[in-house]
Amino acid sequence: xxxxxxxxxxxxxxxxxxxxxxxxxxxxxxxxxxxxxxxxxxxxxxxxxxxxxxxxxxxxxxxxxxxxxxxxxxxxxxxxxxxxxxxxxxxxxxxxxxxxxxxxxxxxxxxxxxxxxxxxxxxxxxxxxxxxxxxxxxxxxxxxxxxxxxxxxxxxxxxxxxxxxxxxxxxxxxxxxxxxxxxxxxxxxxxxxxxxxxxxxxxxxxxxxxxxxxxxxxxxxxxxxxxxxxxxxxxxxxxxxxxxxxxxxxxxxxxxxxxxxxxxxxxxxxxxxxxxxxxxxxxxxxxxxxxxxxxxxxxxxxxxxxxxxxxxxxxxxxxxxxxxxxxxxxxxxxxxxxxxxxxxxxxxxxxxxxxxxxxxxxxxxxxxxxxxxxxxxxxxxxxxxxxxxxxxxxxxxxxxxxxxxxxxxxxxxxxx
Length: 416
Hints:
Layout: H1 27-38, E1 44-50, E2 56-62, E3 68-75, H2 92-108, E4 116-117, E5 125-128, E6 131-137, E7 142-143, H3 149-161, E8 164-165, E9 187-188, H4 202-216, H5 225-241, E10 248-250, E11 259-261, E12 267-269, E13 276-278, H6 280-290, E14 295-298, H7 311-322, H8 329-350, E15 377-378, E16 397-398, E17 400-401
Parallel strand pairs: 8-9
Antiparallel strand pairs: 1-2, 2-3, 3-6, 4-6, 5-6, 7-11, 10-13, 11-12, 14-17, 15-16
C-alpha cells in the first residue's frame, strides 16, 4: 500500500514492536511486506542497520542481475526527529516525501545520486503496516581516498550550480528564496515538480533554533553562556543575510564518508536525508568543517572527534568546488558564519532535554554537548559507513570517523 493509503499513526494488529496478539514483529514479517510492496525477487537480502524493535531499519536486496536496492523503513507513528523539522516537515511521511521529491528532481536533471525505486502502485513512499519505506538504488563505487577531497568539492559545486525552481510544490516562497541581489542566477520558475526543502532551510530552521535557545537561556550555568551567545549570534547573522543569498539544491551532509567514486572517476554524493532546497553557503561551510573527518576510526577513540584546521584539506575542497561554481560576494561575506551554522543549529537542540519534555533543567547541563550527545550515533550509511539516523538520533551503531587531530571538534553535526 502506498503512503497515504493507511494513516501513519495507525498500527495494524500484529505490527509494531508488539502486535495486538502480543507477538513481537520480526525481520521476516517486515521483509515480506517490503517484497510485496516493491515486487522484489532478490537473490539475497541482509539487514544493514537498525532493528524492527526500534524506530528504523534498513535492508539491502541484491538482485539477480547484479544490482541492489536499499530499503529504509521508519516507524510512522513516532515523532519526527527535531533536526529534521528545519525543512518544514511535521511527520515522518512529510519528510520521506520530501526526500523522494529531491531525489526524483536530481534524476530528472541527470545529477549522479541514488534513484528512487517506487512501490508497485508507482508512489515514492510505501507503507508496510506501521512502517513507512523509501527505496533507492545502490550507487556503486569506491570510498573517497586520501588526497581526493577535490572530488568532494567538485561534486558539491556541481550540485549547487544546478538551476532550481523558485519554490517547492505546495510551499510558499520563504526567506532566501525569492528574487533579490545575487539570487537570480541558477533559479528557474516553477515549471515542473521541484525538490523538497533541506532540513536546514532557514525559513523554519532558524526560528526553531532561536526558540530553543531562548527557552533555556535563564537555566544555563555561567560557563555555558558564551557558547549559547555564539550560537545565537551565528543564527541571527545567517537570518539577516538570507534574503540576499543564492538558493540551490543542497545535500546537507557532505563529508568524505558520503561520497563514492565511480570507475570513471566521477564522484557521487549519497545519503540524502538532509537534502533539498536551501542555502549553498551553509552546505559548503558544513563541508569545509566536515572535510577534516575521515571514516574508519572507532567512535570511542578521541582521535575520531578532535580536529584542528588543515589548510590543505580546506584548499582541496575549495579548489574542487570553485571549478564548478563561483561564490557570490554575499556568500563570501557570510561564509565564516556558514561554517559555524551547523554547530549552532544542532547545538540549540542539544541545549534541550533529548526527550523534548523539558529543557536544560532535566540534566543536560551535567554533560558537555561538545563531547556527548546522540548526534554522532546512527545506522550504517548507503555503503556501510556511518550515517546519522533519519528519524531518531539515539538509535544505531557508533560512528567511525576522524583524522586524529588535536583540537576539540565543534558540536553540531546534523544527524540523519
